[in-house]
Amino acid sequence: MAKVKTKFFCTDCGYESPKWYGKCPGCQAWNTMVEEKESAAVKTQGMNSSLFQTKQKPQAITEIESGKEPRIQTGIQELNRVLGGGVVPGSLVLVGGDPGIGKSTLLLQTSHALTQKGLRVLYVSGEESVRQTKLRAERLDALSDELFVLCESNMDLIEEAIDNLNPNFLVIDSIQTVYQPEVTSAPGSVSQVRECTSRFMRVAKIRGIATVLVGHVTKEGAIAGPRMLEHMVDCVLYFEGERHHTYRILRAVKNRFGSTNEMGIFEMHEEGLTEVSNPSELFLSERAMGAAGSTVVASMEGTRPMLVELQALVAATHFPSPRRMGTGVDNNRLALIIAVLEKRMGMFLQNQDAYLNVAGGVKLDEPAVDLAIAVSLASSFRDAPTKPDDVIFGEIGLTGEVRAVSRAEQRVKEAAKLGFKRVILPEKSLKGWKHPKDIQLIGVNTVAEALKAALD
Fold it and tell me: How far is CA 451 from CA 342, 374, 442, 455, in A?
């Protein structure tokens, strides 16, 4: 009988140690070392695989043939956008999200859409029975003869099914439930997740099968397991959304075949997820016209312009230290803009609580939303309603100047398409492109000019 060893692994970086440390020597994180039992007879197959023993000779980079990676169109345009134009054969994609957010629904709909293009799909579920998967497929109207379902968590049996079926697209739901029999630790442990992901990576690369792994997330929102898991895959997607809203947002935080700035938006219905082709119209559908503190900002998510409502509330505080709280924006950025309004505009906000909310739960992290934040705060502080047909964007400097932002033309065109009449933007962003005739553009150089144009 093989001797059982006890080892300690870091759940953040995968560092391996024969003894426990309070602080990981690899990534310097505290309280991340976990104990696992591993058989001494087990040999890691990762570096012994033929995939890593190709015996190729070094080549000059100028002699290597280059070409576009072939793409598989999934039939879901929002997913194609986030992936960079479609699924690359042989790629390994990791999808994470909160429980019940709709990961399995999205992948089942994607699997059905691929079967309509003549591809064979294998959906492996380690958490649900085949009957449960069939019930969901009936509700989503995702029944096809080329969609095969397997309820299994043994890695050897899954690979045997892949050999027999030879699918074009593989879904593993989820990687934390799959285990390798030779590894003695429990499914979902660092060793199991690392070994199973390594085997799926070899399957994807050698056979050219596009593979999607579903990953559980921790209470902090990060994908559970070692961070090595995210380094091994080609693409990491996060499926986000609020329980009290019907829409869902798909973001790429890592993509070897495309941009990580793209965002896909879906809306959850009883029949499944539907694409939102015009997110600006969705986020502005419940906007209150003529309300103080409400402005519309033109933000960019990758190559897509998006109009979102900002709501600010400035009220007198009863505490020595006023609160600065923002939802959907960086709190430090909010405090910086308040400081600029106090110093450059003479607004006395030291005895005022300031709250800022991005309507719809969207997160905005680009500097172009600074000017809209300043106008929202000033509108609420003065109790002066903004004009309902205005769109505002621009970056604010510490001296009160308004700086130019990128892609001003796309932002203005999106505002014109939705029927807005005026756009307040940086003066320097007006150069170098053709202005549309059906919308008024107001260029500003300082925050004072922007407030005068928006509130007077």
Answer: 14, 8, 12, 6
